[in-house]
Amino acid sequence: MVLAPDRLAHPGPPNFVRRAAGVVLDAVLPPQCLSCRAPVDTHGQVCGACWSEIDFIADPRCAACGRPFEYDLGPRALCGACIAEEPTYGRARSVMRYGDRSRGLVIGFKHGDRTERAKTFGGWMARVGEEILSGADTLVPVPLHRMRLLSRRFNQAAMLALVTGRRAGVPVQPRLLVRTRATPSQGGLNAAERRANVRGAFAVRSGQEGQVGGRRLVLVDDVMTTGATVSACARVLLKAGAAAVDVLTLVQVVVCAVIHRKWQYSRVFSGSAWCSKRAGVANGVAIRFQGCRISSDGKAAGRGFESYIRHQFHITRLWFASLVRAVLMQRP
Ligand SMILES: [Zn+2]
Ligand SMILES: [Zn+2]
Q1: 46-313, CATH topology level
Q2: Distance 113 CA to ligand 1 centre (A)
Q3: How confident is the model at residue 282 (pLDDT cuts 50, 70, 90)?
Q4: Domains of the chain: which residue ranges?
Q5: Which of 51, 96, 219, 235 has the fewest Cβ atoms within 10 angstroms?
């Protein structure tokens, strides 16, 4: 199944109806910062204070894995980890570095049902990934196992891919890859354990093989930590005949781009606990059925019934607002 980038386009209601709906919507649900909920000018923005705390990744960076360099080492320079072991994928690019602010944004999106953030995130990804998206034939989101999909209700990578594809004018194939077995959470595992965890976990969906041969594909995911997941996907796609596989993610875990991989990741996991552990949740189910353990901005919150109801009310309001926007204002 290929989703054309303009799949959501339709004639829609006249302009004045959309403008009126926008005014009513802004009165009911004023635009708030995606991260701290401070008032902002338009929906989907991050306030100035939060923006300055987000560590956006810019050049110079490793030509392969995309980790930022302190100094410009030339356009084709590789980091120590990529020199030690060449990645399976061609190029990887990420919008921001893993940190306090980006962690809150992503956890809220992934585990807190703040799915309206996909529109903003996809816009950022389309801009950062311009170079790899310009020659791409198809975007392929990293798939979730069907049981994980059932508990989370959506695949965050597919949502990001759809918005990015629409912005960049590249078709998306959300069903090209399939996760053939459920893999335990990667949190707390080192690079070697992560590789073993996802080995053989992905396959090209049967009947879709013809969509891979000779194509330039871009894998899309929310977070890239050691690159084990995207490498496992890239290996499967290249084996099936893909001409090239690049990677585009929202967040990348970076400690230091020029040190050795082994030290790098052990430091990441001992120095700052992985997000799901810090928030005290094992998966999306814990949030929804055992009380609201994280607030919608991803920070630890009360566990009581009241905070659970408040959280549910908040996400219902957001869901309703995005529905009204999608129908009346042609804004997904
Ligand atoms: Zn803010
Ligand atoms: Zn690198």
Answers
A1: Rossmann fold (3.40.50)
A2: 18
A3: very low
A4: 46-313
A5: 51
